Amino acid sequence: MRAAAIGFELGLLLAGAVAATLLQLAGLPLPGVLLLVVSLYLLRQLYFLWRLARFIQRQHRLAPPFPSGLWGEIYRALGRYQQRARKGRKRQLRFQRRFREAANSVPDALVVLSKSQEIEWANPAAAALLGVRWPVHEGRSLTTICAQPGLAEYLEGGDYTRPLEVAAEQNQSIMLSIRVAPFGERKRQRLVVGRDITKIFHLNMIRRDFVANASHELRTPLTVIAGFVENLLCSALTPEPHRRPLQLMENQTNRMRSIIEDLLTLSRLEMDDTASNLAAVNLPQEIEHVVADARTLSDGNHEILVDADADLMLIGNPSELRSAVSNLVFNAIKHTSTGSQVRVVWHDEPGGPVLRVSDDGPGIAPEHIPRITERFYRIDKARSRASGGTGLGLAIVKHVLNRHDAELCIASDPGRGTCFTCRFAVASRLWREDRRS
Ligand code: ADP
Fold first, then answer.
1. 406 found inside a domain
2. What confidence tier does 434 reach under pLDDT thresholds 50, 70, 90?
3. Does an H or E element contain 331, and which?
4. Residue 188: which CATH number?
5. Taking Cα atoms as reference points, which of 287, 414, 286 lies closest to residue 359?
6. What is the C-alpha separation between 63 and 72, in angstroms, rounded?
7. pLDDT on residue 235
8. How remote is the CA of residue 334 from the centroid of ligand 1, in Å?
9. pLDDT at site 318
10. How does pLDDT run across 228-278, given as a tens digit for each residue?
């Protein structure tokens, strides 16, 4: 509050007092004179109060000229406040417009769902990819507008770690990857992002088909070659100097056969994201069989310890799970030296069943761990080949686990050993019926 404004008000009151004294000297009665002066002062306050109320009611701008005194101060302060609010609103509108323009130019479909999962806003790409037109479909449920198979379950499921890949409803030749990001208060609103992945999808399909077809085509000639080599090796007519090269040829054809079989297994696993032919798998028994084979492979050079909960079974695809277990256990034998200890643990944990295969071998350096599950990624190529490895074992394990909603964790201490942990979902846990009886 400025001193000048208070001074003006005091001056007004002083002028009133002087006028009252003069009027009294002129012979007018004092109460009447005082009433007149106070009324005039109050009338002035009332007028400016009424003017302010009218300004606010009509949402008018408070602009100069402002009255003098305290009212002038109030008018000026409110005028400044109005100006600031106006600027803020303009800035917000500009930002909103720019955000809309940016969102509208995104090639991905963007749909904002309200807390009650109704369409609140969508960009133009959403019309082309998901059939959602804004503002026409505002307030409608997304799943009634685009009835893509699996979308309703995906939205309700609440697990958005993996995208949903589906064909666009209005154009089946378009492949969409749908992602959901919860946001807002208590993350109850959803941003649905639909991306056109047709090109990547087709490229992937071409690659997958090529690998599967090439492997398949190679299998028959290889079987013929392997058959002839075997016959020649078994024949008494084969000259002795030819036996060594024939033996090498047999080893190499066997190696090629293993690679082709693993490539075909991977192609089959890639066909679908989820495992099919689910059954109750007696994993302790599978572990027992794999460990028996591993003992043969080790030829007594390793100490293999098994600690498996005999009552804990698993819902999954039996042959896929067998393949994952054998790849992990055989790796622990192949990639560790004589005298190493291999431990296989199968038990239940609060987060779900866990299979752990650990060894006290050479371990894996940290820089290799993120890439170790890639196809043909080997730390020591020559060593892996010599041990009969195809470089595809861990890729198969990872695919099998992905298809079973399980995850693979690799922990290694170079020089001290490696531990592969497979964590399965609680839903895939199954106890033997006679366990609790
Ligand atoms: P491979 O057929 O060569 O075993 P994998 O995909 O199964 O192919 O494994 C990839 C690489 O990971 C192996 O070549 C090896 O270098 C490393 N590896 C796998 N398991 C172990 C282990 N238990 N200890 C040390 N290295 C391992």
1. yes
2. low
3. helix 318-334
4. 3.30.450.20
5. 414
6. 11
7. 93
8. 8
9. 94
10. 999 999 999 999 999 999 999 999 999 999 999 999 999 989 887 778 889
Q: Which of 253, 270, 287 is the last residue of a domain?
A: 270
Q: Can you tell me which atom of ligand 1 is nearest the CA of 378?
A: 14
The residue to mutate among 323, 374, 378, having the most atoms of ligand 1 within 8 angstroms of its beta carbon, is: 378
* Ligand 1 centroid, distance to 203 Cα (angstroms): 28
The partner residues of 337 in beta bridges, in order of sequence, read none
Give the other-Cβ count within 10 Å of 291's Cβ: 19
250 and 316 part of one domain: no
Residue 145 has pLDDT above 80, yes or no: yes
**Span 48-62, average pLDDT:** 90
392 CA distance to ligand 1 middle (Å): 9
- To 10 degrees, the CA torsion angle through 308, 314, 319, 322? -20
Query: Cβ of 298: how many Cβ atoms within 10 Å?
Result: 21
- Give dist(CA 299, CA 317) in Å, integer: 30
- CB neighbour burial string for 26-43, b if at least 16 within 10 angstroms, e if fewer: eeeeeeebeeebeeeeee
Question: How far is ligand 1, taken at its centre, from the CA of residue 385, in Å?
Answer: 11
- In terms of C-beta distances under 8 Å and separation of at least 24 residues, what long-range contacts does 129-132 make, across chains too? 129/168, 129/174, 129/176, 129/194, 129/196, 130/168, 130/169, 130/176, 130/192, 130/194, 131/169, 131/170
Q: For the chain, what is the domain count?
A: 4
435 versus 296: which is more confidently predicted? 296
**Do residues 34 and 89 share a domain?**
yes
First to last CA, the chain: 86
| Sign (positive or negative) of CA dihedral 205, 211, 217, 220 | negative
Structure tokens at 262: 């693993």
Q: How confident is residue 383, by pLDDT bands cut at 50, 70 and 90?
A: confident
For a substitution probing ligand 1, which of 335, 357, 383 has the most ligand atoms within 8 Å of its CB? 335
SS3 of residue 245 by DSSP: helix
- Residues in contact with ligand 1 by the CB-under-6-Å rule are 327, 331-332, 334-335, 359, 361-362, 364, 372, 378-380, 384, 389-395, 418
**Whole-number pLDDT of residue 3:** 86
- Tell me what the pLDDT averaged over the chain comes to: 91
Give residue 271 CA to ligand 1 midpoint distance, Å. 24
